[in-house]
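Researcher: Next entry in the queue.
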Amino acid sequence: MKTMKKQLSLVLLAVLATISLNAQEFDRGIESTTFVPKGFKFVGGTISYTGMSGENYKFLSFEDVGGNGYNTALSLFGGYFIKDDFAVGGRFAYNRTKIQIDNLKLDSDDITVDVHDYYNISHTYMFSGFIRQYTSIGKSRKYGMINELRISLGGGQGKNLDNSDGLNVGSYQGIFKFEVGFCPGMCIFFTNNIALETSINLLGFTYTRYSQTHNQVETGKFSTTSANFKLNLLSGNLGITFYIPGKASPAK
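Model: Structure for this entry, 252 residues:
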C-alpha cells in the first residue's frame, strides 16, 4: 500500500513537472504596453436630455394620447492613477424625469382605461466609488479597453398627482438605491490628453426601496432586488475625459 502511494506521488510530481516545463518553454509573444502612466489624473462627464410631446396620437390600442415629458441626466467623475494603467476614483450622477399625461384611452373587449390630468416628477442622485483597469489594444497608446468596478449609493424623491376622477389625489415617495456593477468600455485618445470614452452596464446587483405617503395620510413601502448579467446596449454611456499629467508622470 505504501509502495503504491509512493508510485502515485512520483507520477503526480512527474506530470506537474512536465506541465511546468512546457509552460516555461511556451511564449505567446505578448508585450505589455503602458496605456496611462502612474501619476495621471482624469476628470470627465456626460450629459443627456430627451424630450417628448404628443397630441391626439394613436398607438396600437391606445387612442387620444396627449401629454409631454422629459428626462435629463448628468454625470461627473474623476480619478487618479495609483500605478500604471490602474486608477481609483469617484462619480456623481443626477437624473430627473417628468411625465404629464393629458389624455390616454384604452378601449378593448376586456379592458377599458381612461387617464387624464396625471402628473409625475422624480429625481435621483447617486454617489459612486470605482476602480479602473486599462489595457492597450495591441501596442497602441491611442486605443484601449477599460474595465470598471463600481459601488454606488444614493436616493431621491418623487411625487404623483392624479385628477382622473375629478379629485386631486397625490402621493410622495422617497427612494433609496444601492448598486454594485461591472462596466467594461473603450477609451480612444484623439489628442495627447483628451479621450472619448464609452461603456455599458454588463454585470450588476441593484437594491431599490420606495417609501410612499399617500394623501399625507396612508403610508406604504415597496422594494426590488435584481442581479443581472446581460449586454444592454440601452445602458451605454458616452463622454469626454481629460487626462492631466502629474508632476512625476511623463506626457502621453
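Model: Residues 2-25 form the longest helix (24 residues).
Researcher: Noted, moving on.
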